[in-house]
Amino acid sequence: MSFDGIFTYCVQRELKQELEGGKITKIHQPSKHDLILQIRQKGKNYRLLISNHPNFARIHLTASNYDNPQEPPMFCMVLRKHLEGSIIEEISQVGLDRIVMLQMRSRNELGDITRKQLFVEIMGKHSNIILVDQEKKMIIDSIKHVSAAVNRHRSVLPGHAYVFPPDQGKLNPFHASEETVLKKIDLFSGKFEKQIVDQFAGISPLLAKEIVYRSGIANKESVARTLMSVLNQIKSGSIVPQMTKTLNKEYFYILPLEHVKGERKTFSTISELLDRYFYSKAERDRVKQQGQDLERFIINERKKNETKIQKLKHTLKEAEKANTLQLYGELLTANMHAVKKGDKEVEVINYYDEDGQKIKIPLDPLKTPSENAQSYFQKYQKAKNSVLVVKSQIEKAEQEIEYFDRLLQQLETASPKDLEEIREELIEGGYLKKRANHPKKKNVKPVLETYLSSDGVEILVGKNNKQNEYLTNRVAARDDIWLHTKDIPGSHVVIRKKDPSEQTILEAANLAAYFSKARQSSSVPVDYTKVRYVKKPNGAKPGFVIYENQQTVYVTPDEELVLKLKKQ
C-alpha cells in the first residue's frame, strides 16, 4: 500500500503550497468515482483530481484530459451549487490518517460568508468524498452513501453529522523521539516491520519494509535510528517521488524503494508521479466497466464463428466424398446388366483400380438400376457444388473472426470515448440492435489521437475502425507515411510528412506497435508505406485494408516514449 498516511501527508503539503488561496472555477465528474476541480491560483489554472475508486483512490493535480458526460451526476451538481466560486482557505490532513480536508469560503444568496469542507477519505473500498457544512458539522452530500446497516460506526448520509473514522490508537511518528521508538519496539517479538506498522500511525507495510531494509543488520537501535532518519527526511521536504517497475508489478513512493529491485523513474512532483502511475490503470478500469457488454458480445460472436467453421469443415469432409459417388454412378452404368430392381447392393470390378479389385455398391431396392445410377450422379453433383459453397462460408467465417479479433484488440487500447464508436460500428454492421435511447449523431467526425515526434512532426493514430478509416481515407495526404503492425491487429498510424526522418519513422512504428495486439511483445514488425499504396478491398470489413511497396522495421513498444510523444 503506497498511499499510506505518510504519503498522504506529503500530497497534502504539495497541494497546500499550490492551491491554498485559489478559486474553484469549475467542477466536473467524468466518471462514477472521479471529480475534477478546476482552480485558478496566482494566474495559473490547475486541475485537481479526486477519486474514491476502490482500487485507485487518490488526490493530486493532473495534466491528463478526461471526457465529461453530457449530463452531470447529482453529486457533481451539488458540488457546483456549494463550491463553484469558493476560495480554498485551507488544505490539511486529519492526523496521519489518509484523509485530506479542503476548507472553502464563499457567500450564500444573502451575501453572508459560509464555509464548507470537502473530506477526501482514501481508504480502499471504503474511500469516499464528503461535503460538510463547517458550522453545522453536518453532511450535505457524499459521492457514496453509507447507512448504519453497512457501517455501524458511522453513517455517511445527507443530514447526518460528520464523524471521523474510528481512531486506531497508534502513535504519530512525527511526534516521537528515538527514545520513544526504542520503547515501542520489542527485540524479542521479532518481525520489526509488523511492529512498526502496529505501533505507529501512517506507516504502511511497504514503508516499514523499506525502513527495516535500510537498517542493515536490523536491531532495535538500527531500526529506531533509520525510522527517525526517514521521518526527518520526509518532514524536511527532501523527498524523491519515484516509480519502480519490476517484471510483474509497479511500485511508487515519495522515497526510492531500495528493497525493490527494478527499473526506476523519478518525478519532479508527487502529482506527476500519481498522474503517470494511475492514469492508464484507472482509464483501463473505466473502459472495462463501460465496455463489459461489448467485450462479452464480441467474444460470443467470435466463438459462434469458430463453432460454425468446425461444422462447415465436417460438412466439407463429407462433401469431398463426391468422387466416390461419381465412381458408384459410373460403375453402375457400366454394369447395368448385372443389377436388377430389388437388389440392396451389387459387387462389381472397379476398372479404375490398377489391381482390378472388386467393390460393393449400396443400392435402393425400390429403384431400378438406372434410377440408382442417376441418384448417385445427382448426389455427386450436389456434393461437388456444396464444396464451393462451404469453402466460401468458411472463408467468410474466418474473416468474421479476424474482424472480431481487431475489435477485441481495439477494446484493449480504447479510451471511454472510443467505446461508443465501436458500439456504433456494430450497430451499423447489423450485429447489434440500436438502443431506444441511442442519441442521433449527425456528421460527427472521429477524434484522432495526436502525437509529436522528436522532430516536431505530427503523427496521428486511429484507435478503432471508424477512426482508422477516417484517418487513412479522409485525413491523410497521398504521400504521407502510413504504418501498421505486420499481420497483427492494430491501429492505423500516419506521419503527416512525405519524407520523415528515420527517428520519426521509428517513433511512429513504436506507436503502431503499442496500439496493437503485440503491445506486450518485443521486436514487433511494423510495415510502412505511402498512403497512396493503401487500399480497402470492395466489400471488406471496416478498417481492413491491403497495401504494397512497404518496408518493415522492428521495434519494442515503449510506454514511456508513447507518453512523451503525446500532444497535450
Characterise this structure.
The structure is a single chain. Helices cover 38% and strands 20% of the residues. With 568 residues, the protein is an alpha+beta fold. Strands 15-16-18-17-19-22 form a 6-stranded antiparallel β-sheet, sandwiched between helices. A 5-stranded antiparallel β-sheet has the order 5-6-7-8-9, with helices on one face. The longest helix is centred in the C-terminal third of the chain and has 45 residues, at 369-413.
How many beta-strand elements?
22
- What average pLDDT do the residues reach? 91
Q: Distance between the terminal alpha carbons, to the nearest Å?
A: 30 Å
Structural class: alpha+beta
Uncertain spans: none
Shape: elongated
Give, in spatial order, the strands making up the sheet with the most strands: 15-16-18-17-19-22
Helix content: 25-40%
> Main sheet?
6 strands, antiparallel
Computed over alpha carbons, the radius of gyration is 34 Å
Name the beta content range: 15-25%
Count of helical regions: 14
Layout of strands and helices, then pairs:
Elements: H1 5-19, E1 23-28, E2 34-41, E3 44-51, E4 58-61, H2 74-83, E5 87-93, E6 99-107, E7 113-121, E8 128-133, E9 138-142, H3 178-184, H4 192-199, H5 205-214, H6 220-235, E10 242-245, E11 250-253, E12 263-266, H7 270-290, H8 292-319, H9 322-334, E13 345-349, E14 358-362, H10 369-413, H11 416-428, E15 449-452, E16 458-461, H12 465-475, E17 481-485, E18 493-495, H13 502-514, E19 524-530, E20 534-535, E21 546-547, E22 551-555, H14 559-565
Antiparallel strand pairs: 1-2, 2-3, 3-4, 5-6, 6-7, 7-8, 8-9, 10-11, 10-12, 13-14, 15-16, 16-18, 17-18, 17-19, 19-22, 20-21
Helix pairs in contact: 3-6, 4-5, 5-6, 7-8, 8-10, 9-10, 13-14
